[in-house]
Amino acid sequence: GRVGVGWVQVSTGDCPGLVLGAGDNSLASLAENASTMSQNGYFEDSSYYKSDTDDTFEAREESLGDEVFDTVNSSIVSGESIRFFVNVNLEMQPSQAESEALPGGCVLLHTSRKYLKLKNFKEEIRAHRDLDGFLAQASIVLNETATSLDNVLRTMLRHFAQDPNNTEPDCNLDLLMAMLFTDAPMQGKVHLLSDTIQGVTATVTGVRYQQSWLCIICTMKALQKRHVCISRLVRPQNWGENSCEVRFVILVLAPPKTKSTKTAMEVARTFATMFSDIAFRQKLLETRTEEEFKEALVHQRQLLTMASQCQVTPRTKDHSMVSFHGHRHPQPLKCKDFVPFGKGIWKDIARRFPLYPLDFTDGIIGKNKAVGKHITTTLFLYFACLLPTIAFGSLNDENTDGAIDVQKTIAGQSIGGLLYALFSGQPLVILLTTAPLALYIQVIRVICDDYNLDFNSFYAWTGLWNSFFLALYAFFNLSLVMSLFKRSTEEIIALFISITFVLDAVKGMAKIFWKYYYGHHVDDYHTKRASSPVNLEGLGTSLNASLHTALNASLLASPTEPGTAGSPGGVHAGRATAVLSLLIMLGTLWLGYTLYQFKKSPYLHSRVREVLSDCALPISVLAFSLISSYGFREIEMSKFRYNPSESLFEMAQIHSLSLRAISSAMGLGFLLSMLFFIEQNLVAALVNAPENRLVKGTAYHWDLLLLAIINMGLSLFGLPWIHAAYPHSPLHVRALALVEERVENGHIYETIVNVKETRLTSLGASILVGLSLLLLPTPLQWIPKPVLYGLFLYIALTSLDDNQLFQRVALLLKEQTSYPPTHYIRRVPQRKIHYFTGLQVLQLLLLCAFGMSSLPYMKMIFPLIMMAMIPIRYLLLPRIIEAKYLDVMDAEHGP
Fold first, then answer.
1. Where in the chain are all domains bearing CATH 3.40.930.10?
2. Do 370 and 363 touch, CB atoms closer than 8 A?
3. Dihedral sign from CA coordinates of 116, 118, 124, 129
């Protein structure tokens, strides 16, 4: 025989969005035709085969009964369909000896695909009749335990045969089972479904199959009427390419001769349209009885009817609100968008206030309870908030000579978190004090020391000015400006934040090694300052020198307990401390990230994997805290600094400052407000991203005003400021999400089905953080600093999962043959991809140069550098890379 080359002929129509792909796989024998092949067996031209549909089914039934393989099965070509014809192998008619020499035999497989439009439940009355007919004679198999497709279909056919309402006396179930597949007589190894429908989501990033459901169509002459059977599997099953996570099987049986509106394809299209909604499939998974299953079908029909009337789907009817910062093609901003005064705040309150009671009941009361997920998420948030709070509280304690210590930092975190959880428009956003805020606090302390100002008063005025500017931004709807931020800009800032976490951990570990391993004592900056008075006559020189000294200090200061490494007898003990600290840090990272990724492993039950993944951070922190405290108790470990506050709540004397000092605080407050404005809106935009499927709406302007009010109170009482934290907020959303998995090219991808939009998790975590004041100094001081550094590395690493900038940088280290088939790889030349990545890296380096500079004023203005990225993206990059390629690489959804 001769081997032919596979070829594809494509004719496409314009059908964006979610479509249904109908696959018709049939075996066809090709007659020998010398005119259609060259001497080497290659095709020179193409032709379509037409055959009568009824005759085809009759011929196939006869061939299956008589075991004769001599039919040609093809379908009429549609002008708007995608047609794939794959020539697997061309062989001349072999002799009997040659046939016996080929153990598997060789046949031709004909595959065709075409688009099917989703049914309009408002205009097409037949859709309602199809569902009514199914409900009247429902054939539903719940909790099917079979694992193979054949066994599942046999169970469905037996259920169909045993139902008195579906009796077909002339129907041969064995013949019907055989017609579902492409098996040819004497060629049983080609065992594929003949006719199927699957949901396909067409996005800017490519085509994605909905792999959790499969609709199988079969037309047989012996059938007298149409039948539908639905089976729900207990566990997802892997049945091959594009069917790796199947939970639902819809089987549609119908006679070939029927009205065009009653064909098997039309009935299948009705049910396929219903199952194309990911939220509906999740509801069906939560049903327990056939009656609940039927009720869900009826409810979905109502939703689809309403959606057809509104021309939007139920899950995206508030898309303009949900994707406020979808911002891939933002509308040009006009002056009228920023007036009238407070318009955005009023709209936010009107949108969110009616849903306020549901924020406390979702997942707790009703059918879709998720109490366990609420508990695990609360524990995750508690540790994710408490440990950075302790770390930055210890830093603030040393930078401010105890004016802001660990106690005040925990108290401020608890109070601010409680207020935001209770009154915010988007309670999934988590507020934290961060490294840039610790930097500002340090700069304020240095200025106060150099100019002999009262720290609490100057700190309060800086915070008040910050709140004033934030309130102005909120009332004039300036959050609309954030719609100009592209995905690439967001990823640069997100990667910058991850780098700061890594740098903090590395600096802290370097100081531990410097003290314990090499036997050096780190000079205490504040002790030196106490021994040398301030020279008030040279304010400019002293300010410069003191700022340089302060800002060169580590973000996480050196251990404060007496070291033994400096003495000759303690050298070996000091080195043991350093090495153990490194192992504890890396162990915390390894265990936490391994458990976080455990949900993607095949081990244990899915619910156990989910719980372990949600509790990865608490388990890791507790495990290595116990290991360091009890397993190696004879080795000294670095603990965070703790000094009890003399007065936890003491209002600042804001009237004690001069007008000149208040004016100076205004400049610092303005720069600080820019940082708050960018961080708050950027993190909120990531939380409200359309792929998270949040349905309760956004509240950017109101949340910004609430943030100003919260920080005004914190400033007056000398508590550290807080704003929206990355990546804690997106991780909070992910912890509360129900996901559906799909497998593409050997990789597991997750699609969020819905998110429990609740206030209880952040509220509970804030209460637990407040109660942690009772755990000071012990047992919280049992948590060594290396565990905190491991936490920083964990946060940085988990935030890189969906960062395309990081993924494209990693491409530079891979062979081109190993590149993943992402949308930008398929649609953008590699040279342009690397240009774009290089330009992003340059912007990242620029941001790092300002944000991590030793010069104080460069550090303070890095929020302005963030804002400068907007004109860079809109004015500079299009001059280097074509706009069409930029739009692809800035696409909202990942691969």
1. 17-310
2. yes
3. positive
Are the CB atoms for 452 and 536 separated by under 8 Å? Answer: yes
Q: How far apart are the first and last CA of the chain?
A: 41
Can you say how many angstroms the Cα of residue 822 is from the centroid of all Cα atoms in its chain?
16
Owner of token pair 């265990």:
591
Distances (CA, A) of 519 to 208, 513, 580: 58, 8, 16
Three-state secondary-structure class, residue 744: strand
User: Any residues with CB less than 8 A from the CB of 756 and at least 6 apart, and which?
Assistant: 362, 363, 370, 373, 374, 736, 737
* 577 contacts 636 by C-beta, under 8 angstroms: yes
Residue 577 parent element (H or E): helix 571-596
Q: How many whole angstroms separate alpha carbon 218 and alpha carbon 177? A: 9
3-class SS at 536? coil
pLDDT value for 677: 93
> Contact 786/577 with Cβ under 8 angstroms?
no
Pull the structure tokens for residue 412.
Answer: 């401020």
**Amino acid, res. 159:** H
Q: What is the block-wise mean pLDDT of the chain (895 residues), using blocks of 10 residues?
A: 36 44 46 37 35 49 45 37 38 47 63 82 75 76 87 86 68 81 62 86 70 88 84 87 86 83 84 87 86 85 70 40 44 68 89 91 79 89 90 85 89 95 94 87 86 91 95 91 81 86 88 82 42 37 40 40 45 78 94 88 80 86 89 83 76 89 91 92 89 89 96 94 90 87 66 88 95 87 88 86 80 74 73 87 88 73 83 86 81 50
Rounded-to-integer distance, Cα 701 and Cα 476, Å: 9
- The residues pairing with 737 across neighbouring beta strands, listed in sequence order, are 755
CB neighbour class for 36 (10 Å; exposed up to 12, middle 13-18, buried from 19): middle
Decide: residue 540, CB within 10 A, 0-12 exposed, 13-18 middle, 19+ buried: exposed
**Listed residue (673, 717, 175, 227) closest to 460, CA to CA:** 717
Please give the structure tokens belonging to residue 575: 């080195």
Q: Which two tokens stand for residue 291?
A: 């009656």
Q: Taking Cα atoms as reference points, which of 732, 750, 730 lies closest to residue 741?
A: 750
The residues, ordered by sequence, that sit 6+ positions from 107 with a Cβ below 8 Å of its Cβ are 27, 29, 88, 89, 184, 187, 190
Task: Say how far apart CA 140 and CA 135 lie, in whole Å.
Answer: 10
* Residues 395, 374: Cα–Cα separation, whole Å: 32
Q: At what angle do helices 760-771 and 728-735 cross, to 10 degrees?
A: 120
Residue found under tokens 């099987």? 249
Report d(CA 245, CA 211) in Å as an integer: 6
810 to 52, 806, 863: CA distances (angstroms): 54, 6, 27
**Length of the chain as a residue count:** 895
Report how many helices (DSSP H) and strands (DSSP E) the chain contains, helices first: 33, 12
Instruction: Take residue 240 and report the two structure tokens written for it.
Output: 């091959």
Q: Is 503 helix (H, G, I), strand (E, B) or coil?
A: helix
Give the helix/strand (H/E) hosting 254: strand 246-254
Closest by CA position to 24, among listed 1, 51, 63, 6: 51
- Residue 697 in contact with residue 322, Cβ under 8 Å? yes
Q: How high is the pLDDT of residue 85?
A: 37
User: 742: which strand partners?
Assistant: 749
| Peptide linkage before 559 cis (omega within 30 of 0) | no
Provide the pLDDT for residue 568: 45
Task: Answer whether 740's CB lies under 8 Å from 283's CB.
Answer: no
Angstrom distance (rounded) from CA 792 to CA 8: 51
Structure tokens at 577: 């401390």
Rounded Cα distance between 693 and 199, Å, is 18
Q: Among all chains, which residue has been given the structure tokens 């660990």?
A: 406
Given a contact cutoff of 8 angstroms between Cβ atoms, the answer to whether 577 and 565 are in contact is: yes
- In CATH terms, the superfamily for domain 17-310 is Mannitol-specific EII; Chain A (3.40.930.10)
